Amino acid sequence: MSIRILSPEVASRIAAGEVVERPASAVKELVENSLDAGADEIRVEVQEGGRRLLRVVDNGQGIPTGEAALAFERHATSKLRSADDLEHIATLGFRGEALASIASVAQVTLLTRHVDEAVGSQLRVEGGQLRSQESKGAPPGTVVSVENLFYNVPARLKFLRQPATEAGRIVETVQRFALAFPERRFSLVSDGRLVFQSTGSGRLHDVLVKVWGLDVGRQLVAVGDVEAEGEPPTHLEALRVSGYTGLPTLSRSNRNHILFFLNHRTIQDRSLAFAVSEAYRNRLMVGRYPVAVLMIDLDPALVDVNVHPAKAEVRFREERAVFRAVQKAVHATLVEHAPVPELRPEGLSWSMPGWAERREILLAAGQNLQPSLALPREQSTVNSQQWSVDMAGSSQELPQRSEPVTASFQPDAMDNGTPTRASADSDTNLPISQSTPAFPILRVVGQMGATYIVAEGPDGMYLVDQHAAHERILFEQMLGQQVGGGVAQQALLEPLAFEAGNSHAGLLAEYAEALAAAGFGLEPFGGDTWLVRAVPAVYGRVDPRRALEETLEGIADGRDLVGESKEAALVAVICKRAAIKGGHMLGLDEMRQLVRQLEACQSPGSCPHGRPTMLVLSRMQLEKEFGRRG
Ligand code: ADP
Ligand code: MG
């Protein structure tokens, strides 16, 4: 193939792909323009999740008639003059690409009137071509209407999710702007319904309440204006961290509720999110994350915002100083408002409320619902002496006894978190399976770090990750139930009215069938409200609202969605959340039960997400390490 220069049309569609990935990204660009134009009242309207129409109306300074057509040219911007300006960007836009990109993949109408002019002008651009321009009366400000986004890029259209899901992302986008600019008023109308509006009062807390509700609002405390004191470089004097952070009573199952704004620009930064969750160490349970909205103000010269097409990521010149300042600010706030109640050994959650009950239900759910999975098909028992003898030989030669094994899991044996039964002699009842060659026969020895089960097998020492193992067990059980007769549910005594947040409403609709197949009993109840009548049995006594919320968060997060079908993917999400976590003490009987159930799995070696369930230290390795073998 010979090298050719792409036609401008193709080149601009490729470039558009970087800036405009989905309707929400177009909304982001348009709102940024309105903000840069000084608007303090910005209204966003969308139809069908923005696919049919998205419109941004502002009361900013408008575009002079003579420049309106220029706005659609690539690299046309009023915000940068020279490369030097890139060093201290104070506007949200500067690349001069957004309007050109959007117009190349949609039908765009621009109606604008500059503050100093008496009439406005209206332009129509389709697929990058200017179709018409005329004068038109209008109030000062700008209206950009984008119709049929991606009408000429079928590949992109295919990747769009359901309208409700796309609308959810738009809600999130607009809410982030509202948080970043509390003194400006934002409204969002979706399919004719006002779904979000901020007051423009200038108080961040007011916006937070609008976004997350009063309940969350009450659990957020202001992060003091902590300056980066003691940090030597004087040019960082201007570094400030403010905002709100949650009391430890408020937590979520992922980091999606830790938001950062750098000089009013929403940014993603994993290491900063880590800094915040670190500040909550020992205050939140393992696997729970805080809610926080943090404003970082910094001299623009110390940040490079030009490293990402949609400007979602930035590069700090003094990354560590920023990291420390964020951590310090959050930590100081927590020390003041939520001192750690007592010192506990790290990572142990002895006092997790309801854990004993939950564990009982989880394990019972595994036993009773799928007896064929819960117990190996052929069973025999062996005592510890015979075991050690047989270890040398092949496991096929293990002596057999014919009496059936009864499930020996006894939940009350450790209700206070301490195994009360001495267990040295209970090895005599160790059940083993000879029909699952995929998994060795293990003798549970103990637990390490409340997270790993230490076991002895025919060829060495095994460490089983209790969470990964339990995930695998629940996963296969639930899939088995889906095939035969349906997933075990627990019905609620009273149906629960679940009001899906904007971003979750779309997911609920999209996953309604898969959720039903996974054991959720859901009924639409008008608007974004659903009646929850049942939840999957594996959730035990987890609050049903939280069970559904966590499931939806898991879907939204996407990372845990693995499996061949939507149903299986969802089951993986649920099992991850329902499985025993690391950090929980287990009794010997429980560990045996778990290992036995793992033995019965078809793919015992990994969790549904592909992480290993166990590690082996072979006898050979041990002998080598101890110098017993040359
Ligand atoms: P950039 O924002 O990077 O400059 P855009 O393609 O988004 O590039 O916009 C091009 C130019 O059009 C802007 O620099 C600005 O002068 C003008 N413009 C776009 N939208 C608006 C608006 N809502 N109000 C006033 N001017 C606007
Ligand atoms: Mg712009």
Keywords:
33% helix, 8-stranded mixed beta sheet, elongated, binds magnesium ion, 630 residues, binds adenosine-5'-diphosphate, alpha+beta
Biggest sheet strand order reads 5-4-3-6-2-1-7-8
* Residues in helices, as a percent range: 25-40%
SS class: alpha+beta
Counted by DSSP, the helix tally is 19
The N- and C-terminal alpha carbons lie at a distance of 60 Å
**Outline:** elongated
Outline the low-pLDDT stretches: 226-235, 341-353, 366-437
**Radius of gyration from CA coordinates:** 29 Å
Overall pLDDT level: 79
The largest sheet is:
8 strands, mixed
Q: What portion of the residues fall into strands of 2 or more residues?
A: 15-25%
Write down how many β-strands occur, each being a DSSP E stretch of 2 or more residues.
Answer: 24
Bound molecules: adenosine-5'-diphosphate, magnesium ion
Question: In short, what is this structure?
Answer:
With 630 residues, this protein is an alpha+beta fold. The strands form 6 sheets. The protein has an 8-stranded mixed β-sheet with strand order 5-4-3-6-2-1-7-8, covered by helices on one side. A 5-stranded mixed β-sheet has the order 9-10-13-11-12. The chain has a 4-stranded antiparallel β-sheet with strand order 18-19-20-24. 40% of the residues are buried.
